[in-house]
Design brief:
The protein has 227 residues and is an alpha+beta fold. The protein is built from seven helices and eleven strands. 27% of the residues lie in helices and 26% in strands. β6 and β7 (160-168) form a beta hairpin.
């Protein structure tokens, strides 16, 4: 056995990184913009309002193929096209929406979002943050209440309250996890509180870490400050 651990080779992301756009427009009062330093080796930002869907698919598919050295006949390339086409035809409408597009052996097609809203809109779209993170709305339909954890730690002022619930398809025995998160930037003077709701679905346990990492990369620009 070797005494030295083999160093992992970092994925090639040059082409995908060139398409990375970390700044998101946000109309929430007191918020100038939202910045998400997402990993282009994992996530693709969904097309924005007015963006040509066909051009978006072709650009991200070409970058993905370039970084991974794929041809149009490769199964991974064809799966990526299906994933991008599905996302391009949807309109989630959150502040930040993403889909994962990864190398073989990792999960592509994971959808995740972060919504940056004021208290009123947060309640209208997602409900009471306590209900949202404990999944009490699902428990009312026969599920179980969840106990949220703090991520990364309770002591971190930017910590998220996160929870997840697993569902099993009785026909295929395939598992799907719903993950939710919430954090609040408290009101400051005339600026009202800003709420961050986040969520997504994945079907492999290993995808949870990538989704949680994505949540922590969200940086809200509050005028001259960041939250």
């Amino acid at each position: 056995m070797s005494l030295f651990r083999r160093r992992r080779t970092a994925p090639v992301t040059a082409a995908r990184a060139a398409l990375k756009d970390p700044v998101f427009v946000c109309s929430t009062p007191g918020v100038a913009a939202v910045h998400v330093d997402y990993d282009p080796a994992v996530w693709v930002r969904t097309p924005g309002p007015g963006q040509d869907r066909t051009e978006w698919v072709e650009a991200h598919l070409a970058a993905y193929a370039t970084d991974l050295g794929l041809s149009a006949s490769d199964a991974l390339y064809q799966q990526a096209r299906v994933t991008l086409d599905l996302v391009a035809d949807s309109a989630p409408g959150h502040t930040c929406d993403f889909v994962s597009l990864q190398d073989e052996g990792q999960e592509s097609g994971v959808v995740a979002y972060v919504n940056v809203v004021d208290e009123e809109l947060g309640w209208l779209e997602h409900g009471d943050p306590e209900v949202f993170t404990t999944m009490a709305d699902l428990a009312a339909q026969g599920g179980e209440l969840q106990r949220p954890d703090h991520f990364p730690t309770r002591r971190d002022p930017r910590s998220w309250r996160v929870s997840d619930v697993q569902s099993l398809d009785p026909g295929t025995s395939a598992s799907t996890w719903l993950r939710r998160g919430h954090r609040c930037i408290e009101a400051d003077g005339a600026r009202p509180a800003v709420h961050l709701y986040a969520g997504g679905f994945h079907s492999r346990p290993g995808s949870a870490a990538a989704m949680l990492h994505l949540f922590t990369r969200v940086d809200v620009e509050l005028g001259d400050a960041r939250g």
